[in-house]
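User: I'm curious whether this sequence folds into something compact or stays loose and floppy. Could you predict its structure so I can see for myself?
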Amino acid sequence: MTKTRWFRVLAAALALALLLPAAGGLAATYIGRGSVLYVDTPNGSGLNLRSAPGYDASVIATYRHGTAVTVLQCGRSWYKVSVNYCVGYMDAQYLSASKPAPKPVPVTPKPGSAYAYVKTNGSRLNLRATPSRASAILGQYVPGTPVIVYEAIGSWYRVNIGGQNGYVMSKYVSVAYGEPTANYLRVYNPNGGSYVNLRRGAGTNYSVVQKVPVNVLVTALERGVEWTKVTYNGKTGYMSSYFLKSR
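Assistant: Here's the prediction. I'll summarize afterward.
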């Protein structure tokens, strides 16, 4: 091999090495200008976009887990990237070639948290992985479902619903502090139905105000052996006591 050809081979090898990231998650993936990568942090936290390749550089913005970024230039430890027309540098070890799954929210119930209920107009409320309507849906809940609220984040609540942590839009949740009172009863249907009728009066001859889904809470106003006057989702009526039980 001639010296000139040897130098060409060496130059090509060095150029290829610059295109390969040092991070393990990208080691076997070709990354070049225009490649789309995703923020993938171990605990699901945000990743800083910095003004220069280093942790001593100023932070321009912080982007959520799963955010797509476009590569402009590759380095061994840092990439120059563009995010929504904002240009800066990100640590390559926290970028992934494939979109990562949502991370669970690391929170647990604590005393003094607000206790609330889903208050949509009959539709299901989405529980999301992050406080964004574009994030993954972790679950969907009917009106009246109990919600533990930890904190408000803008127009969102960080919550726990049925043991699942996540975020919901605050306008669809009614908040009261402390544990639910004894006036709350849970709707159930031992016959296997998915709903129970809320009627205008105490009897099956009265018209149906609303079909109430099973497993939600209603507020008992007047209790009776056969019929109980309740409030659900802003509407008041009567429900057969047979379909109500304590929490």
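Summary: Confidence is low (pLDDT under 50) at residues 13-25. The CA atoms of residues 115 and 148 lie 5 Å apart.
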